[in-house]
């Protein structure tokens, strides 16, 4: 029989993260497009970001037929948080600058690229990237490259850059608790053997 789960964070009730999840406001609107393979993942950091940001929304799928409407948010300039040769590093908003609708694909790099391929409108958006970032706190997976972050970490870094001096570090509290809980569940010996190399 499946364990009862929290309807909001979708974690087992004994490991609910809602008490740690902030309710932060941002000028930036965040649209997270999640590949279906990530939706049921125990370490679903995109869901944590969407729950903790008042101006964020999470959509799950491979082909997003409603994408034109989602991108046409009055008062926002849509851009894609994804590396590329033409990606511009995010910097703080100028005082009267129009805020961004930051579109964030969520999935492995391969799945994120597939989302771009299946949704040409996404691939055509102006790209933005993060400047130099602190190493990932995601201690359960080896980063595929330097500067690789989980989805929630990438969103926090993007918002910290755009909306400085406002900080969005509180979004990482449930993420840190999630990672600590996974490590505790596997035990120090297993974690040390498999993840500290």
TrEMBL record:
Top-level EC class? transferase
For this protein, the Enzyme Commission number is: 2.5.1.25
**Similarity comment text for this entry:** Belongs to the TDD superfamily. DTWD2 family.
**Among its keywords, does the record have S-adenosyl-L-methionine?**
yes
All copies of the DTW domain together span 2-187
Q: Which InterPro entries match?
A: DTW, DTWD2/TAPT
Q: Which GO terms describe its molecular function?
A: tRNA-uridine aminocarboxypropyltransferase activity
Q: Does the keyword tRNA-binding apply?
A: no
**Source taxon at top rank:** Bacteria
- Give the protein's recorded name: tRNA-uridine aminocarboxypropyltransferase
Q: Which UniProt keywords apply?
A: S-adenosyl-L-methionine, Transferase, tRNA processing
């Amino acid at each position: 029989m499946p364990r009862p789960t929290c309807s909001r964070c979708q974690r087992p009730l004994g490991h609910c993260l809602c008490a740690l999840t902030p309710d932060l406001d941002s000028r930036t609107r965040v649209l997270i497009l999640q590949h279906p393979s990530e939706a049921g993942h125990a370490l679903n950091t995109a869901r944590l970001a969407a729950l903790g940001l008042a101006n964020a929304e999470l959509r799950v799928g491979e082909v997003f037929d409603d994408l034109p409407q989602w991108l046409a948010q009055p008062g926002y300039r849509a851009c894609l948080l994804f590396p590329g040769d033409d990606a511009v590093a995010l910097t703080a908003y100028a005082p009267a600058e129009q805020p961004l609708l930051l579109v964030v694909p969520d999935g492995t790099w391969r799945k994120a690229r597939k989302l771009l391929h299946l949704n040409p409108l996404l691939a055509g958006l102006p790209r933005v990237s993060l400047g130099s970032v602190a190493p990932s706190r995601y201690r359960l997976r080896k980063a595929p490259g330097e500067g690789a972050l989980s989805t929630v970490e990438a969103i926090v870094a993007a918002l910290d850059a755009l909306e400085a001096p406002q900080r969005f570090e509180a979004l990482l509290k449930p993420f840190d608790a999630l990672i600590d809980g996974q490590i505790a569940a596997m035990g120090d010996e297993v974690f040390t053997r498999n993840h500290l190399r």
